[in-house]
């Protein structure tokens, strides 16, 4: 059972160790990047695993700075993991492997009042044709939760997705179905852009997802955009953002 806690902004959530900084060269496919690393004056180009299916075009472009961590398995084909990339003055977490730990922290600490004081928090539960991130049980009521990470921002507007996502659309459809069957449903958006002031769906990149996002809001699916920064190796919770006035089309 969780008890709701009051957290000040800039609360440390998770420490993520990095080993070196490099210069992004290219991304041959969505899981692989080539990064130049300066090792005591000797520059080498290394294969780096990208654990984020998004395009990340405003972060992963030639010449941009990135943070890497050495792979724990020395026999792996990619010797490094991509952790973050610079955007303006901010390091942006671009490794979705950490989304589970961040969202667990959110739920276990009652950061969202409407999703706090649960009797049970069950991860990775099957609903319909999907496996959703969490099922919350409280006083006999079920709440189905899906978590998405947002790494795209233009000016003060953060948006998702940054690449077409049939999977993301299907997850929203399952949340809509849950509402129609008498359950509560919510999407937690981990907004990883500290400069953003609001969040919305990106219909320019994926109009089908954006339309489903609007349908979900009408159906009573709640959306909670939570803003985080990545500073000095730490993920920090900043605040809950409002939804923007309209979806991007």
From TrEMBL:
Pfam families, alphabetized: SfsA, SfsA_N
Chain ranges of the Sugar fermentation stimulation protein C-terminal domain: 98-231
Domain of life of the native organism: Archaea
InterPro entries registered for this protein in UniProt: SfsA, SfsA_C, SfsA_N
Domain SfsA N-terminal OB: 25-94
One annotated GO molecular function: DNA binding
Gene3D superfamilies noted in UniProt: 2.40.50.580, 3.40.1350.60
Family: Belongs to the SfsA family.
UniProt-listed HAMAP family: SfsA
Name of the molecule in the record: Sugar fermentation stimulation protein homolog
